[in-house]
From TrEMBL:
It comes from the Eukaryota. Residues 1-21 form the signal peptide. This is FAD-binding PCMH-type domain-containing protein. PROSITE patterns: FAD_PCMH. Belongs to the oxygen-dependent FAD-linked oxidoreductase family. It comes from Mycena indigotica.
Amino acid sequence: MALLLATSLASLHLLAGATLAAVDVCGQINLGTSPATKVYYPVDLLGNYAADLSHWASSSSDLSACTVEPANAADVGTILTLIGSARVPFAVKGGGHTANPGFSSTPGVHISMTKFSDVVYDAPSQTVRIGAGLVWDDFKVYAALDPLGVNVVGGRVSGVGVAGFTLGGGYSWKTNQYGLTVDTITAYKLVKPSGAVVTVTQASDPELFFALKGGGNNFGIVTDFTLKTFPQTQVWGGLITYTADKLPAVANAVAAFAANVTDPKAAIIPAVNFLATQPGVSHIMFYDGPTAPSGIFDDFLAIPHFTKDVKTRSFLDLVQSAPSDATSGTRGAFHTVGLRSYSKTMIDAIINETIYWGAALTLAGAAFVSYDIEPFLPSIYTHGTLPKAFPFTAEPFIPLNLYYAWAPSLTDGFFHDALRASAAHLTQVALADGQTGVDTAPLYPNYALIGTPLSRIYGSNLATMQAVKAIVDPTNVMGLAGGWKI
Ligand SMILES: Cc1cc2nc3c(=O)[nH]c(=O)nc-3n(C[C@H](O)[C@H](O)[C@H](O)COP(=O)(O)OP(=O)(O)OC[C@H]3O[C@@H](n4cnc5c(N)ncnc54)[C@H](O)[C@@H]3O)c2cc1C
Ligand SMILES: *[C@@H]1O[C@H](CO)[C@@H](O)[C@H](O)[C@H]1NC(C)=O
Ligand SMILES: *[C@@H]1O[C@H](CO)[C@@H](O)[C@H](O)[C@H]1NC(C)=O
């Protein structure tokens, strides 16, 4: 059966040798796993193959030899050992929100974790076990926790996967209070490249536990994450947008917020963007309580808005109200700078970058340019007492997120170069602003553009991570998948 399929697919698509080998592994997986584990091929009228491959950005999608939906951890082990023996390229996809090409896509065997969808709350330990196939705001995670009055330190806008987000670090609305998502993990259920299924905790394997906190897909496939939970009431906030003429007032308000607001329940993401011919601001405000104390958001509320959807609501409703799918389906890329502070100088330079590159790239056919300002408190790296792979220093560098989207007909390299140039320029502005070390600051793996040197992602932690990797994955099976390969 597998051979027949391989033959017919080969003649259909004139597959390359590597892909032919992958098709063979697809057949082996089909035979070697339990019936609940599914293998889908490109000729799939029910749409399972296409659903498994789908990504937030088309630039990180690929046509694979087959897609596999493992149903349990033991089958994930079988799949990894078959892939490791045949040494074919593969991918692991959670929520499919990376924009970097090949990070969760492949021409080989595409593993979609969609069947890992349990959410199990344990009241005595105040933790919740969450399956690696889930998205924070789909019908399960936030929605399941809301009636219990608890929540996790998870994604801020709609559609983001639990797995990739958590394996990279995790900047949340609740990060000012509790740290990164990785600071709140108590256990990973991990399928090692050998096929062994283990529960990794600080007590069971401190080195591997450290390495998984930011280390991405280098150590195997995670099927479940156990996270601490925290109390959750209704929250206040939502999206407010401003037109170009309000940019100076918004810049002042953002600088004042970044300099003066120390209440850890308050957070904002002012995104300066450029669409078609115009800059503008999409600004999300968050307060972890039904009402915000006066003073914190007054400056923003006093600026005449274009649209406004700000109110007391559930955490889930706030997350789903942000326009995170506005550019879904186009090609796109992110990049980042690690800043010491969002000074007025920095904010003005970011606005200048948005307008400069927005105008230049629109002429080249770009669809959208956005610079997301993320003024977290400098204390966010002090919450986790245990070591973690990301970031490699506890110095308070906080991320700026650059995002460009473009039409599929245009060349990726052109936009990647522009992102790198803009990030480099803003790094120089920060240095001139007295922000020492910004040129060597950790760059968040979930925001950094493909090609970023590993030294900027894992820095002084790299050698320890590589030592862990040599034990867990001596034949470098995970090197057959894309990502930040250590
Ligand atoms: C609209 C949008 C909003 C975002 N908002 C935030 C935010 O608020 N805070 C933040 O920190 N980040 C944010 N991000 C970045 C986000 O954290 C990354 O895109 C992250 O990779 C998403 O995880 P995913 O599961 O959806 O991605 P995927 O593309 O599925 O996976 C990303 C990486 O994780 C690996 N991986 C996935 N599942 C597993 C697994 N089970 N085992 C081992 N490896 C696995 C993949 O192989 C891949 O290398 C946002 C991104 C987008 C597009
Ligand atoms: C922060 O608050 C102080 C005191 O009210 C004020 O003088 C200062 O201008 C504020 N900072 C910014 C950047 O607005
Ligand atoms: C605006 O940005 C461009 C591109 O980085 C840069 O060349 C220029 O010097 C900037 N202008 C100001 C006033 O910062």
